[in-house]
């Protein structure tokens, strides 16, 4: 066991006994009694109110109604928690207030030297992500609680920007943060199947008196990914896409989260992908437009024609706007 684990074990043993001696602690943890004394001193220095009673029935005990364990983390663990909280808060983590409280508590229970190091590491890392607004954060909290309590939700959901809202009942199985957007995945009573819904498109929501059983081993993360990544079980539906261009542009293209899963072969100035035809129609040409003249499509002809059509439509749109 590491030092931190042993100190935490000592704390829990003291907490679970009315009184316990150093020898009893040493015997239970199979460490030297002098080590017990050092760890007790360290726990006291971190703010734990441990009382040592002398005499025949003496031993260590906790003062009063102390129930909160100190955060017995080493500096690297503290740094990791501070950095992880920065990512979570920027991603719109729904319980940000509690997370800030936890970080503040971590700083309280550390020593001065570690606290100075924590501040240095905290100042050295920043995260910039689009944050959820207050209304969405409130919805996320309600959804997360409903997931944990397995409570059916009633919501009014807007599928598109101009679509009318639809009333639905949803058994929420899990929350997923994907590309800076939050999704709730669950069983839709209206469609009678598992669906995903963007939380920022929920216009109204309330809990019901109904409960549900979550499918065993269901993963909301895997459900989202299965709907995004190409289906490797259907190779007959795949279309060959070959792209040439500058090496750095191809590096960036091949590193894209979706394109990396479709890459077949790569040379210095050419990349060969296999994608489903629906992906070529849906989003690939719009993504490739951002590369401008740094890449060139060799095949398929369908993709070339789609790019030409999109750019022509853009040209016509802005040309007519300029005339008006």
Automatic annotation (TrEMBL):
- Domain of life where this protein originates: Bacteria
> Which is an annotated Pfam family here?
HTH_11
Q: Which SUPFAM superfamilies match?
A: Winged helix' DNA-binding domain
Domain WYL, by residue range, is 139-204
Describe the location of the Helix-turn-helix type domain by residue ranges.
Answer: 9-61
Q: What is this protein called?
A: WYL domain-containing protein
> Species name for this entry?
Paenibacillus planticolens
Classification from the root reads: Bacteria, Bacillati, Bacillota, Bacilli, Bacillales
């Amino acid at each position: 066991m590491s030092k931190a684990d042993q100190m935490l074990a000592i704390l829990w043993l003291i907490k679970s006994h009315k009184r316990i001696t150093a020898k009893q602690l040493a015997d239970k943890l199979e460490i030297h009694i002098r080590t017990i004394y050092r760890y007790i001193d360290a726990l006291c220095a971190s703010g734990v109110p441990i009382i040592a009673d002398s005499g025949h029935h003496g031993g260590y005990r906790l003062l009063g109604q102390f129930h909160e364990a100190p955060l017995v983390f080493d500096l690297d663990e503290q740094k990791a928690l501070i950095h992880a909280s920065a990512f979570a808060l920027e991603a719109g983590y729904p319980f940000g207030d509690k997370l800030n409280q936890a970080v503040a508590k971590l700083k309280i229970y550390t020593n001065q030297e570690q606290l100075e190091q924590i501040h240095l590491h905290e100042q050295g890392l920043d995260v910039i992500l689009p944050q959820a607004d207050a209304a969405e954060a409130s919805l996320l909290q309600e959804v997360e609680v409903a997931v944990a309590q397995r409570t059916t939700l009633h919501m009014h959901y807007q599928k598109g920007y101009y679509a009318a809202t639809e009333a639905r009942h949803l058994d929420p199985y899990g929350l997923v943060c994907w590309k800076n957007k939050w999704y709730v995945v669950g069983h839709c009573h209206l469609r009678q199947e598992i669906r995903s819904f963007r939380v920022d498109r929920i216009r109204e929501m309330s809990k019901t008196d109904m409960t549900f059983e979550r499918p065993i081993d269901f993963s909301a993360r895997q459900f989202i990914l299965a709907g995004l990544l190409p289906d490797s079980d259907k190779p007959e539906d795949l279309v060959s896409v070959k792209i040439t261009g500058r090496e750095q542009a191809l590096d960036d293209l091949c590193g894209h989260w979706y394109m990396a899963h479709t890459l077949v072969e790569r040379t210095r100035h050419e990349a060969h992908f296999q994608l489903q035809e629906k992906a070529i129609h849906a989003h690939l040409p719009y993504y490739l437009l951002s590369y401008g003249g740094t890449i060139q499509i060799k095949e398929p002809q369908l993709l070339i024609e789609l790019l030409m059509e999109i750019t022509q439509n853009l040209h016509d749109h802005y040309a007519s706007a300029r005339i008006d």
